[in-house]
Design a protein that fits this description.
The chain is mainly alpha-helical and 258 residues long. Helices cover 78% and strands 7% of the residues. It has 2 helices and 3 strands, in the order βββαα. The chain has a 3-stranded antiparallel β-sheet with strand order 1-2-3, with no helix packed on it. Strand 2 and strand 3 form a beta hairpin. It is elongated. The termini are far apart.
Length: 258
């Protein structure tokens, strides 16, 4: 910004004028002090007057109006062009956004389909692996069970064989001991064994007879209950038959009297 300053001095007051020019090309004056009343203003040099007719003034006014309208029209055209550009940019932006959304949706849909296919494939593979693993486990379990059964059977056979051997040895020892005893002792032992066996047989027979007697009594009771139920059922049937007969007789009497 440029500035020009003019200073005029007098005996009583001072007037300072400052002329500044802005960057836009406009000029304005700033009065920094009130002018003195008796200060003589500078006289402008006389200019030669020019007679301007009313027609020229009107033509100038019309030209100025046309320039103003042209300037406004240009401004409006520039504004319309800017708005059209803005609208076109907005439309293109909307189209790009729409295309981007459509493309993103298609890409997402494709990715979802691929993910679903991959997930199904992974699930199928996992199911197949689990099936194979379960088959292996079942095969291993059956093999272990078979091995365990074989080992147990072998162990039982060994135990039975050892028990048979031990029993044979014990029997042999008992026979050897019995041979050492005399005949009377042997007979006494045999008699005691026979007596013990007879007592056991008698006791078993008594128990069996008691059980048979109890079973017979229970069977008799059940038969009595069933017979009683049959009698009750027959009495009810007889009452029903009597009621039906009485009802039929009553119906016949009513019909004949009518």
């Amino acid at each position: 910004m440029s500035a020009e300053k003019t200073v005029q001095s007098s005996a009583e007051a001072t007037e300072i004028r400052c002329q500044e020019k802005s960057k836009g090309g406009l000029c304005y004056e700033v009065i920094l002090a009130e002018p003195a009343g008796n200060v003589a203003l500078p006289k402008l040099p006389p200019t030669q007057g020019k007679n301007v007719s009313a027609e020229e003034i009107e033509e100038k006014l019309k030209a100025a109006e046309e320039r103003r309208l042209s300037l406004e029209a240009k401004k409006m055209a520039d504004w319309s062009a800017k708005m059209a550009k803005i609208e076109e940019a907005s439309r293109k932006k909307d189209e790009l956004d729409k295309e981007f959304k459509t493309h993103a949706k298609e890409v997402l849909h494709t990715k979802m389909e691929q993910y679903e296919e991959k997930r199904e494939q992974q699930l199928s593979e996992i199911k197949e692996k689990l099936k194979t693993h379960a088959a292996d486990i079942e095969k291993t379990r059956q093999s272990l069970e078979q091995q365990k059964v074989e080992e147990l059977q072998k162990h039982l056979e060994d135990k039975l064989r050892n028990a048979a051997t031990l029993r044979d040895d014990n029997i042999k020892k008992i026979l050897d001991r019995l041979k050492e005893h005399n005949t009377d002792k042997l007979n006494e032992v045999r008699a005691a064994c026979y007596q013990t066996e007879a007592q056991k047989t008698t006791e078993k027979t008594r128990v069996i007879e008691n059980k048979l007697s109890t079973a017979e009594q229970n069977r008799e009771k059940e038969l009595q209950k069933k017979l009683e139920n049959i009698r009750k059922h027959e009495r009810r049937a007889e009452l029903v038959r009597q009621n039906k007969a009485a009802l039929a007789q009553k119906t016949d009497v009513t019909a004949s009297s009518g």
